[in-house]
Amino acid sequence: MVSVKQVQITFDCAEPERVARFWCEILGYVVPPPPKGFDSWSDFDRSQPAERQGASFACVDPTGAGPRLYFQRVPEGKVVKNRVHIDVRAAVGLAGAERLAALKAECARLVELGAVCEEVLVSDDLNESCIRMHDIEGNEFCLD
Length: 144
Hints:
The chain is of the alpha/beta class. It is built from three helices and seven strands, in the order E-H-H-E-E-E-H-E-E-E. The protein has helices at 16-27, 41-46, 96-112; strands spanning 8-13, 56-59, 68-73, 86-88, 116-121, 130-134, 140-143. It is elongated.
């Protein structure tokens, strides 16, 4: 049986570099070095045919533990709810009021970066608190 060694998460978007840099800020990810022979990603991008310039961008977890995020330009805008979304684990190990406070603090930071707070879900008998959000192009994610 073959096992998966790595996972990449791909985002369809209008502005790949802008969305990638937004997620770098959220997750502490970094932009990987440009391909050999190029001093910067801008230099690499300018070497591409006009229709490929700005068509994709990526970021990686500097520790190597998290998946690579890949952002690709698509012509159509977002129309419906995502069937899969990212949970940003901002309050691991916390519960109750302490968890909600940590989530709200992270939410405030992300809103300053351009995210949108959709709904604060307060804990009940079955679930702990979480916050539903949208990134700068409307993709859903949760603070968990």
